Amino acid sequence: MLEAFANIVKIPDLRKKIFLTLGLIAVYRVGAYIPTPGVDGNALAQFFARLSQTQGGALFGIMNMFSGGAISRLTIFALGIMPYISSSIILQLLTAVIPALERLAKEGEQGHKKITQYTRYGTILLAVIQSFFIALWLENPARFQGLQIVQFPGWPFRILTVITLTSGTAFIMWLGEQIQEFGIGNGMSLIITAGIISRVPTAVYQLYALFSPFAPEKAQLEPFTLLIMLALLVIVVVAVILITQGQRKIPVQYAKRVVGRKIYGGQSTFLPLRVNQAGVIPIIFAQSIILFPATVAGFIPNQTFQRLAMSLTSGELVYNTVYALMIIFFSYFYTAITFNPIDISDNMKKYGGFVPGIRPGRQTAEYLDFVMTRITLPGAIFLAIIAVFPSIVSSWLKIPYLVASFFGGTGLLIIVGVMLDTMRQIESHLLMRHYEGFMKKGKIHGRR
């Protein structure tokens, strides 16, 4: 692996891509500290400190994670990449139900460009709506009287906030596209990952304060707890890698075709079906839906709504049960949208491919649907376990949730998935130029 990293520097094109990617990520992180005009930073910090103690704190904690802490400081990148993610998910869902978008998705590169353009328009629209409501919300922090967050409330502040936050989101979207085109890895995913990783120093500092190695009398945790945490971290990361990389390989045989004097086809290959086809999308869906009623109920002064908010608090049995069931449901829901066995079967039949022992056409589609339904269940159950695992670790080991969040949940899944994808792309560049990748391959010795 060390040799592979050394080889990266030897390839000018790959070295340029990596440095460009790191430079654009650095620009993003600098922008995450430029404040939005018209906001009192001290009052805003107090506001979010109080908010974190309420039912709404969980929802804004998730938004803050995806923005890399920018929303808690209300910087120009406060909305982060979330409007783009929401717009992409909406377009994917609409593609499955609107025939015109479905035809557009099948038109190849030109159709993909149009859908990307629609995604950009949706991103700007969502950013305008979200930034406007953020401006109104900051002008009237009804739950926390005595805090004057906005120095000069009114339409000038609202318009300025909308322009600033929307421009910030558009700039982040542009950064992601530049990384995608000229850098290495998936640009949007790398930006999200950079924001999540930026929270690591704060988590490490909190962990250091809990153990207090140079002041044992102040220590709140035992050294044995640290060993348990390290063991859990290794086990969870390995499990995430296994599930992320897990595939069911369906053998596919292509029949021989004679065209003129040439023979085409006849080779054997396989169709990889991923165990975790939906990725982290089910967790994002489930978090958004389960936290929204709790957030709204927490702001309504009614005992029934307050009890509902308390029952849906993160870490409670009702919350964990409903959360896990929703993740399993959305895993099947999103897989059904993104995986179309009929299209795959038709494409295989078109090019003379078939699954051995299965008739082409409808029976192949039914077989692929059956296999995908079977392998989605363990992937969905794993997602549900990994999503509730941080709250279990937090209550079991008595550590802050920020520290426990790196033992599972959305953040760890995104970090591991994006890092694996980026390393895979770097390795393909190395192998293409006859360098060893991150994993050494066995040498084949033949006759000279």
Describe the protein in words.
With 448 residues, this protein is mainly alpha-helical. The protein folds into two domains: 15-198, Preprotein translocase SecY subunit; 224-407, SecY subunit domain (Preprotein translocase SecY subunit, Orthogonal Bundle). The chain has 19 helices and five strands. The chain has helices spanning 2-10, 12-31, 41-51, 56-66, 70-73, 82-97, 99-105, 109-139, 155-182, 187-197, 200-211, 223-245, 281-298, 303-311, 317-338, 341-350, 362-397, 401-404, 409-432, and strands spanning 247-254, 257-259, 262-264, 268-274, 353-354. The strands form two sheets. It has a three-stranded antiparallel sheet. The longest helix is centred in the C-terminal third of the chain and has 36 residues, at 362-397. The radius of gyration is 25 Å and the shape is globular. The protein starts with a helix and ends in a 16-residue tail after the last helix.
